[in-house]
Amino acid sequence: xxxxxxxxxxxxxxxxxxxxxxxxxxxxxxxxxxxxxxxxxxxxxxxxxxxxxxxxxxxxxxxxxxxxxxxxxxxxxxxxxxxxxxxxxxxxxxxxxxxxxxxxxxxxxxxxxxxxxxxxxxxxxxxxxxxxxxxxxxxxxxxxxxxxxxxxxxxxxxxxxxxxxxxxxxx
Length: 171
Hints:
Layout: H1 3-29, H2 51-70, E1 77-82, E2 101-104, E3 107-113, E4 116-117, E5 123-124, E6 126-131, H3 132-138, H4 142-161, H5 165-169
Parallel strand pairs: 1-6
Antiparallel strand pairs: 2-3, 3-6, 4-5
InterPro entries: Zincin_1, Zincin_1_sf
Keywords: Hydrolase, Metalloprotease, Protease
Pfam families: Zincin_1
């Protein structure tokens, strides 16, 4: 037996031992090999939704009365949700978001992205981007989150239309 073959055998033995450990761990987690028997909650119950799905529902609910009132003016506007804002490599004290961003302190909550042309030359539509995680962190409960999202949408739609937020809200 050569020196290289012995080293290969030790490496092979280490790999086999590692695979055996993985198999044992799997057995401990799923002792009978059946996996989950079913969903914890039926899919039609609100508890089965993820946090992002619940937030999307809040956004749609808040957008509904605005869209009903301003449907014709908002045909070229999209509403999107991101988890967190994209931060490009810069120091926190040098961070500036721009005029199209609604922020709380230095944390952006929403942004109005105007229509334009992307880097590939494809025209893009105007869109309002809401940042889920910062909004959820600022809300005390579901009703507070709904009010906050509604107020942000009113403010962003008013900015898009060039109107006063009170006019857009209908007060």
